[in-house]
Amino acid sequence: MAKTLVLAEKPSVGRELARVLGCKKAGEGFLEGEKYIVTWALGHLVELAAPEDYDKAWAKWDMLTLPMLPEKMKTVVIPQSGRQFRAVQAQMRRGDVAELVIATDAGREGELVARWIMEKAGWKKPAKRLWISSQTDKAIKEGFAHLRPAAEYDNLYHSARARSVADWVVGLNVTRALTCKHNAQLSAGRVQTPTLALIVDREEEIRAFRPKEFWTVRAGFGGFTATWRDKNGQARTFDKEKAEGIAAALTGGTGTLIEVKKTWKQTPPPPAYDLTELQRDANKKYAYSAKETLSIMQNLYEVHKLLTYPRTDSRYISDDVVPTLPERLRSVLVEEYKPLAQQILMHRPLQTRYLVNNAKVTDHHAIIPTEEQPELWRLSGPERNIYDLVVRRFLAVLLPPFQYEEVTLKVKVGNEILHARGKIVKDQGWKAAYDRSFVLEEEDADEDEREQSLPELKQGDKLSVQWARTQTGQTAPPKRYTEATLLTAMEHPASQGLDKDQSRILEETGGLGTPATRADIIEKLFSAFYIERRGKELCPTSKGIQVVGLAPEELRSAQLTAQWERRLGDIARGQEKENVFVDEMRQFAARLVSQVKASDATYHHDNQTRSPCPECGKYLLRVKTKRGEMLVCPDRECGYRRSVKQTTNARCPNCHKKMELRGEGEKQIFACVCGYREKLSDFKKRRSEKSAGKGDVRRYLQQQAQQEEKGSSAMAEQLKKWLEQNQ
C-alpha cells in the first residue's frame, strides 16, 4: 500500500502530527502508521554554501577576492544536522512512498526549509501543502482534508530563496569588506544596518539636544484646575517674567465661564494582535525581548496549542474564521475571562466589525485563541502572561466601543483665557477587558492639560480664582528606543524624517524586515556588540556608532530596505521575477564593496583596556553583552574572548537578588549588589548541601556559559571560520 510522507519543521510538531495521523511505529528520525510516515527537520537542514565551496581563493578573507558573486548558488547539508537529513532522505527514497505533504511552518521560511530539503534529497514525486494556523487536533484534521498542490506555493519559495540569496550576497560581501578594510570584526546587512542606523541617529539627536526652560500657569477654581493658554493654544512660555505676570494678574481675580462644550465620543477597540504588536506590548508590560515573546508564542502555538500561528503580520481575521468564534469564546470560559466571555456569547450576533477584514489578511490571520480548552496551571509564568495579553485583546475586539462625554471649559479672567478638560464615562465597552493599568499610547493625555472630574457648570457662571501659580519645566530630548518602540520604528520607518512620497512607499511595504525576522535582527545587534541595554533603553556602543558611519550610505537607508521587502512580497504574489531581484542585489553588492574599498574612513577601538590578550598580546576590548561583560581581542586573526562577569539566576542568600559570576577558573566568585561575596567552590558546596548534586551545579554552570552571546548568523559563522583559518 502506497504511503504519504509528511515533512514537519520540528520534532515536536512532527510528533503531534504523527499522533493525530495514527503513526505509532518509531524509526530513525520518523514515525510510521498504516497510511502516513511523519519525519521532520531540525529547523533548516540545508543552507547556502559557504564562499570557499565555490572558490578556494574565497576561503581567505582578502579584499582582493571581493566581491564574491557566484554564477549559480549552491546548497549544502548543515554538518550538525547531517544525521537527520539522511534520515529524511531515506524516507523520501522509499519505494512505498508515493507523495509528500509539506507540513513545515506555513510561511516564507517554512517553505524554504522544505523545498531545499526536497531539492537536496532529489524528490521528484508529487507534493502537497498543509497550510494551517493552529496546531489543534481539529485544525490538523481539517488541514489534511483540504491539502493544496505544492505548486501553488512555488512563488512563496522563490521569494524565500531570493531573500536568502540577497542576504548572502550583500551581507557576506560587505561584512568581509568592512572586516578586511579596518582589521576589526565588523558586520553589516540589508536589514541589520538600517535598524542600527535608527538607534544611532536617535542617540545623535539626544546628544545634540539642548534643553530649554519653560513655564506654565495653572489656576484653581475650587472644584477644578485650569491651565492658561496663549492665543495660539500654547500652554508653555519661555518667558519667565511673562508667566509670573500672568499668575499675579490671575491671583484673587474673578473669571467668567465663556464656554462649556460637551462632545459625545467613542473609541473603537484596538485590532487583534499581530506578532509585532504583541512583542511591543509584552516589552512595555513585562520587559520581554522580541525574541523571548516569539519563543513563548511558539510554545503556546506548538506545545499547548492555545494560540494561533505567531509569525503573522495581520491584525484581522477573514470571513471563513467567523463561524469558529463561538467555540473559541467557549474555550476561554475560565477564571477571570469567564464573565466577559459569557457576556459576549449571550449577545448574538457577535460584534465582529472590528475583527473581520478580508482585505487585510495575508498568509495568516491575527493571533487569537484556538478552540482548545486551556489548563492554565500547566503554563509557565511568561506563557501565562502572553496568553493573558492575547485573550484580553481577543475579548476586547469583540466588545463595543468605549463611549464617553468629553467636557471642555474656557474661563476668561481679565484678558487671559484658561482651559480645563474632563471626561464622563458612559459605557466602558472594550475597556472592560482591561484593568486600569492598561493605557494605549494614543490615549495619553496632554501633559499640560490633564483630564479631571468637573463639577456641573453652565456658561456665564462667575468663578473665583482661589490660587494661581507658575510651574517650570524643561523641554525633553527624544526618548531612546526600547525594544517596543524599536519594533514600531522598524514596522513604520516612515516616521524617521522622510518626505511624504517616501513615507507613502514605506507604509505600503511594511517596513524593515518582517514580523518573523525582526526579533532575530535585534538579537544580532546585541551579539555583535553594536548595542547594549540600559534598563529598558537600547543604546548604541562606540562600535555600533562607528559601523553606521563606515557602512556604505545606501545600505543605511530604511527606505531602500523596505522597498526590497515589498519586492520580495511581489515575488511571493507572482508579480515580479526572482532572477530580476537577485541580479539587482548582485550589482548592489558589487557597488557597496567598491564604496568600502574607496573609503578613507578609519575605525578606532574606544573600549580598549590595559589587559593584554594571552594569545597575541594586543590590548583586549571590554564589551557589554545582554547578560554581563566580556573581554575580546580586537585582532580579527586572533578571536580570543573571555567572560568578565555575567548575571546569573543564582540568588543572593541575603537580599535574594540575582548575583553576578565574576572572574574565571578557580578564582570565579559570585557577587551581589548588596555586598555579598561567595567563591564558586563555596557556592557549589552550599548547593550540594541542599541536595543539589554535582550534576545540578555542572548543568547550571553550563547553562550560564551557553547563554553568552556568540552569534549564530551566517556572517558570524563565516567570521568564525575565517578566524580558525587565520590562527
Automatic annotation (TrEMBL):
Gene3D superfamilies: 3.40.50.140, Topoisomerase I, domain 2, Topoisomerase I, domain 3, Topoisomerase I, domain 4. The keyword Magnesium applies. It comes from the Bacteria. It is an enzyme of class 5 (isomerase). The active site is at Y309. Coiled coil: none annotated. Its EC number is 5.6.2.1. Keywords: DNA-binding, Isomerase, Magnesium, Metal-binding, Topoisomerase. It catalyses: ATP-independent breakage of single-stranded DNA, followed by passage and rejoining. This is DNA topoisomerase 3. It comes from Flavonifractor hominis.
